[in-house]
Amino acid sequence: MSLTVLMNAGPWLSVPPPGYGGIENVIATLVPELRRLGVRIVFASVGTSTLPVDEMFSVFPDGQFHALQRPYNQVCGISQAHLNGVVRELHARDDIDLVHDHVEAVGLATLTAMGPDAPPALHTLHWDLAKHPELYGNVDGGDRVRVNGVSASQLARAPRALQEHSVGHVHLSTPLAVGADRRPAAAKGDYAVVLGRINPGKGQDLGARVAQRVGVPLVLAGPVGPYHRPEDLAAAGEEARQNPDVRFFLEKVAPHVDGHLVRWVGTVAGQERDDLVAGARATLFPLRWEEPGGTAVVESLALGTPVVSTARGCLPELIDHGRTGLLTTDEEELGDLLLAASLIDEGDCRREAAARFTPALMAQRYVALYEQVRQLATAPRLQPV
């Protein structure tokens, strides 16, 4: 395949990220498989990114995620500066066949504003589409800019303008799914784990209360705002409360963290994360929002650990209730389902991941979307009769 794609990862974290990094991990999983298919990648990221690509450029030497807790007037130029660099790069060269953008809101706004002479673009929607209603409700990329979701349920809730620009959805994947059906069973502990950034939508406070009610030890693994370790948050002082995720943790979650039945261990990554998840009786997703993608869900399946969750967002698309996990529409049932999770066959979880959620499958789907976007951008318009 002769195709050059400008992959826009944004200014927030290096790729691969050093710990937690949802979108950055998606990109780190996708790009190697695209290159195996012959796609040439020009990478827009930060200077500390180490992902092997064909070319890379950056505006910032390092990730700017730490700045997100600052007041808006101190932060609002970061994404714009990065996108300005992307536009300059596109103006300076004529070999980019397509832009694949992953930067929330400003990426889509910039690409649609570039006009018909810019390359075709695919903007992947990784987040809650109820945000930014003035942008998403009025977006107009013409025939050149298209969007895709990371689940069908995400797109079903999108404003009409986004749906009209959609070329479908691509489920997320994990390298852990490769050969997962051949991976030996792990020794299981009695604990459950909640993975992900700690915030109200992820429902860690609900998870802690559920665990305490049924007596199942619970490990909360993920950052609180910009703080990846408990000791970092403890040393941050009162200023940290400016971050809404920090306030949520301190007011709603921390009162349940006793260090015994409920523990917060901060960000875990690599083998430490894999061992933690593989040894759990279940991965708990006590969601209060419509989860759009669910990377941690497919990682859990690949590691042979069933999922217990509220049936929100993409979860019913990813989990076969009764076979690879247990879902409920009633938060009060989560405790009973957590106790019943040991009845799920971990081999079924691993086989499901190997069949549906490998990086190769995700890359093949994106290559098909790239061709679709390019064809839509160049197809002659039908003239009105």
Automatic annotation (TrEMBL):
Keyword annotations from UniProtKB, A to Z: Glycosyltransferase, Transferase
Domain of life: Bacteria
Domain Glycosyltransferase subfamily 4-like N-terminal: 20-130
Matching PANTHER family: BLL5217 PROTEIN, GLYCOSYLTRANSFERASE
Name recorded for this polypeptide: Glycosyltransferase family 4 protein
